[in-house]
Design goal:
By secondary structure, the chain is of the alpha/beta class. Helix content is 37%, strand content 17%. It has helices at 14-17, 20-27, 64-75, 96-103, 120-126, 142-153, 162-165, 200-218, 220-225, 230-238; strands at residues 2-7, 32-37, 50-51, 61-62, 83-93, 107-112, 129-132, 185-186, 189-190. Helix 4 (96-103) crosses helix 6 (142-153). It is elongated and about 70 Å long. Bound molecules: S-adenosylmethionine.
């Protein structure tokens, strides 16, 4: 899969994309991450990429010409047409199923806004999907783009062990169970006995129950959206967690 990011601040990406799993994923050829400087497409002497808003008011708006030139030039750098995403607080909130869908695309281009945002005509002309990473406002789209790239890249085949993705929080409507590693007892706190029992069936039951408990206590809204088995329902009723 190929990501192309269009940004006014390309150096922001250097650290997060070149560490740990994302670094290895790129070296192994599972994902390509290309960062493009929109300013390189400005044609005036000062490489101006923003201007005052029509209608007045505070802030600046990113101009259409450098952005349109960048989108067209970067699109032509590969024969695969990109799925163009604009990151914006008024987009659809990011969720795991959306990351799964994006991971199936061969090429995704992400446009990062700054200041008051981008000229609306860029959105209506080039953008296929608008994504928000949460109900708050960031100074720019760079961190949002990195969040999306991270959430998507780890779902691409070969990037991480497929077993790690199973039963993960948000993968199937439940949160994940708690994890422990050595030592067995730390400052008087022991690891749950069942996990050291070697009984795979008992461990699987305990983990399922922990997922149900955690989701019911922290995210009852999620529990309402999934279909529970009779065993799940019985367990939750016994803990007075079923509405
Ligand atoms: N004036 C815009 C509004 O009220 O919706 C906010 C602009 S924000 C200061 C500048 C840029 O940051 C946006 O164009 C967008 O690319 C990015 N951004 C800010 N918050 C975001 C969020 N929650 N999710 C995704 N992108 C965001």
């Amino acid at each position: 899969m190929r990501f192309d990011v269009l940004t006014l601040f390309p150096t922001m990406f250097a650290g997060p994309l070149n560490e740990s799993i994302l670094k290895r994923a790129q070296h192994a050829g599972h994902v390509q991450m290309h960062i493009h400087d929109i300013r390189a497409y400005a044609t005036d002497r000062h490489q101006t990429c923003d201007d005052t808003p029509y209608g007045g008011g505070a802030g600046m708006v990113m101009k259409i010409a450098p952005l349109a030139a960048a989108i067209r030039d970067v699109t032509a750098q590969d024969s695969v047409q990109p799925h163009v995403v604009y990151v914006t607080p008024d987009g659809e909130p990011l969720h795991q199923a959306m990351a799964v869908q994006l991971a199936q695309r061969p090429r995704v281009m992400i446009l990062c806004g700054h200041y008051e945002g981008i000229d609306e005509r860029v959105r209506t002309t080039f953008v296929h999907q608008e994504i928000s990473i949460g109900d708050y406002v960031l100074t720019g789209g760079e961190l949002a783009a990195m969040v999306i790239m991270d959430a998507v890249a780890r779902l691409i085949g070969g990037v991480i062990n497929a077993d790690s993705l199973a039963e993960e929080s948000h993968s199937d409507g439940l949160l994940e169970y708690p994890h422990y590693t050595r030592p067995a007892v730390w400052e008087g706190q022991a690891v749950p006995e069942v996990l050291a029992s070697g009984h795979h069936g008992a461990i699987a039951t305990w983990r399922r129950q922990q997922r149900l408990l955690r989701t019911a206590q922290r995210r009852p809204d999620m529990l309402k959206r999934i279909s529970l088995s009779a065993t799940d329902r019985k367990f939750l009723s016994e803990h007075k967690l079923l509405e």
